[in-house]
Amino acid sequence: MKVPRVLRGIGLFTDFGAEDPYQGAIKAVLLSAAPGLPLYDLMSAAPRFDPRASAYLLAALLETLPPGQLLICVIDPGVGSNRMALRVKTAEHLLIGPDNGLFAPLIQRQNAQVEEIGWRPAQLSASFHGRDLFAPAALRHLAGQDLVLRPLAAGQWQGADWPEDLLEVIHVDSYGNLITGQRAVEGSEDRLLELGGRQIAAARTFSERPPGGLFWYANSFGLVEIAANQASAAEQLQADRGTACRWLGP
């Protein structure tokens, strides 16, 4: 298969992890059909079993990518059910994955075009649609082949009623930093953030706090993140994915 010139990269956004064969199996399908694909892992450790938390992370990551990306997104605890497969088209990118809310925030923020993928392969397992449906659908799109698309209006896809931002922890990274689903707003640096009964002030850099010092900041993906200098904020605050926080004051 010839790689289209407009394609800058194909990224995988999954919760498969690096220790199991699933990420590699998807890559094998893609590269066997098109050895020259510019393929990369956007994330293989997205919030596991959690399309909602993953959705806010995906929406933020998408805004940092160069134009022309095709993302295959697989956080799919409902695999094998009657949930739809979607193709989501923004002004700069195209995404393929399950209809479980995973695309909801980015659809709302970017006024994306949403379509149900009606095409199915001759052989489709009940437990691995990433390999058997979404990766082949991406290849068919690249080849200009029919995906039997049906346009969906607002409210016909899962997560349409979710808020555009989520002020709770959506991901704990390997450093113990607490990433929220709330986009940072310029001018909010004077506000205090409360989590677990602790009041947390903002800082611009880690070095502005002593070792172990807590702070919140706008991370490199534009999200509010709680961290501790050279320490784990998750351990200090006994916080995990789903822990709520709130702004104090005006």
Looking at the overall shape, the CATH architecture of the largest domain is 3-Layer(aba) Sandwich
The Rg value, from CA coordinates, equals 19 Å
The CATH topology label of the largest domain is: Rossmann fold
Class based on secondary structure composition and strand pairing: alpha+beta
Total of domains: 2
- Total DSSP helices: 5
Q: In CATH, what is the class of the largest domain? A: Alpha Beta
Order of helices and strands: EHEHEEEHEHEEEEEEEHE
Biggest pleated sheet: 7 strands, mixed
Mean pLDDT: 95
What is the terminal-to-terminal distance?
56 Å
Number of E-type strands: 14
- Strand order in the largest sheet: 2-1-3-5-4-6-7
Low-confidence stretches: none
Write the layout of secondary structure elements.
Elements: E1 9-14, H1 22-33, E2 39-43, H2 51-62, E3 69-74, E4 85-89, E5 94-98, H3 104-110, E6 113-117, H4 129-143, E7 149-151, E8 166-172, E9 178-183, E10 192-195, E11 198-200, E12 214-218, E13 223-228, H5 233-237, E14 246-248
Parallel strand pairs: 1-2, 1-3, 3-5
Antiparallel strand pairs: 4-5, 4-6, 6-7, 8-9, 9-13, 10-11, 10-14, 12-13
Walk me through what this model shows.
The relative contact order is 0.14. This protein folds into 2 domains: 9-151, S-adenosyl-l-methionine hydroxide adenosyltransferase, N-terminal (Rossmann fold, 3-Layer(aba) Sandwich), CATH 3.40.50.10790; 166-248, Beta Barrel (Elongation Factor Tu (Ef-tu), domain 3), CATH 2.40.30. The termini are far apart. The strands form 3 sheets. The protein has a 7-stranded mixed beta sheet with strand order 2-1-3-5-4-6-7, with helices on one face. It has helices spanning 22-33, 51-62, 104-110, 129-143, 233-237; strands spanning 9-14, 39-43, 69-74, 85-89, 94-98, 113-117, 149-151, 166-172, 178-183, 192-195, 198-200, 214-218, 223-228, 246-248. The protein has 250 residues and is of the alpha+beta class.
